[in-house]
Design brief:
single chain, alpha/beta, Aspartate Aminotransferase, domain 1, 4-stranded antiparallel β-sheet
Length: 350
């Protein structure tokens, strides 16, 4: 692992800040009587025993992920979905009113929302018309106040794979952090950037248990980065940010990797079948090739079709007002039965 000096990127008041120390931080071993955390010693009301606080550092999850991803546990941050690490990155590295983040629309909307919540400026450099990074434009727009560049790959809402070499070029010529959001990486044949962290330490990778693992309700996301980046996020996170039930669910899922792989294979097959059928419909102008579990589809009168599908009990996302996605609906790949119902309804539209 290369050395990586990030002190100049961290908000100065955080450098010497003393983090909150929970009871489970001060005693990390095993014992018989716990009288240190003001928990309810009698147990839990109306549920299984949840009276004790969870592991604040999710050590068991990190150990399994480290083996699965071939990284060290200190390169892993576990959060409440990907939403939490996105917010923490902005809070750790961006001073409100001074620094800025870069987003590359069309892209995941939470990056901008989190920046707005934290009063951090957002600079936008749109993707090219074929949904790729405009590297010269990004590099020209980056300045000394830029701290984070968010790259969603595979991209949401387009589903497209971004050229890996473009992301590496930006990271190698940028003094801040390039955050690669890989929420949909399992549905893509593209390699993850996780293995690039050792050689390009200013790359930060976000992944999630919400998509391929099918655990959206558990709200568990993971961040892979240089240990110094992980350390500052651990310093400022809430003490018990991932609940015990979610940790248990994730640990069980990590023992069933083959089941996850089977889900992914089936969804990729369903995606190809759905795309082929959509492309035959007269109201469909274009279905963009996808490396995710959804299809961006350009159609006649997207707003009317969207509301028509609602009437038929089918919900998709209207992305027609998003930059470069004009005329498009985003359609998640469903079960074979759900996809058939969608296609039948679209055939009857108009």
């Amino acid at each position: 692992m290369k050395d990586f000096d990030i002190r100049h990127l961290i908000r100065p008041h955080l450098l010497d800040m003393k983090p909150y120390s929970s009871a489970r931080d001060e005693f990390t071993g095993k014992s018989e009587v716990y009288l240190d955390a003001n928990e309810n010693a009698l147990g839990s009301v109306g549920s299984k025993d949840l009276a004790r606080y969870p592991d604040p550092h999710q050590e068991a999850i990190k150990a399994q992920l480290a083996e699965l991803k071939e990284v060290n546990p200190d390169q892993i941050f576990i959060g409440n979905g990907s939403d939490e690490p996105i917010d923490l990155l902005i809070r750790a590295f961006c001073t409100p009113g001074t620094h800025e983040i870069f987003i590359l629309p069309p892209t995941f909307g939470l990056y901008e929302v989190s920046s707005n919540v934290n009063a951090v400026a957002v600079t936008k450099v749109p993707l090219t018309t074929d949904f790729q990074l405009d590297v010269p434009a990004v590099l020209a727009a980056i300045n000394e106040q830029t701290r984070l560049v968010f790259v969603c790959n595979p991209n949401n809402p387009t589903g497209t794979r971004l050229h890996a070499e473009d992301t590496l070029t930006i990271a190698q010529q940028f003094d801040g952090l390039v955050v690669v959001d890989e929420a949909y990486i399992d549905f893509s044949s593209q390699e993850s950037f996780v293995q690039q962290i050792a050689d390009v330490p200013n790359i930060v990778v976000l992944q999630t248990f919400s998509k391929a693992w099918g655990l959206a309700a558990a709200r568990v996301g993971m961040l892979y980065a240089h240990p110094k980046v992980v350390a500052i996020l651990n310093k400022i996170k809430p003490p018990y940010n991932v609940n015990a039930m979610s940790q248990d669910v994730v640990l069980e899922a990590l023992s069933k990797v083959a089941e996850k792989t089977a889900y992914v294979d089936e969804l990729v097959s369903l995606r190809a079948d759905l795309q082929a059928h959509l492309e035959r419909l007269p109201i469909v102008h274009k279905v963009y090739d996808s490396a995710a579990n959804f299809l961006l589809t350009r159609v006649d009168d997207p707003s009317a079709l969207y509301h028509y599908l609602i009437e038929k009990g089918i919900i998709v996302r209207d992305r027609s007002k998003v930059q470069l996605c004009e005329g498009c609906l985003r359609i998640t790949v469903g079960t074979a039965e759900e996809n058939a119902r969608l296609l039948a309804a679209m055939e009857r539209f108009g």
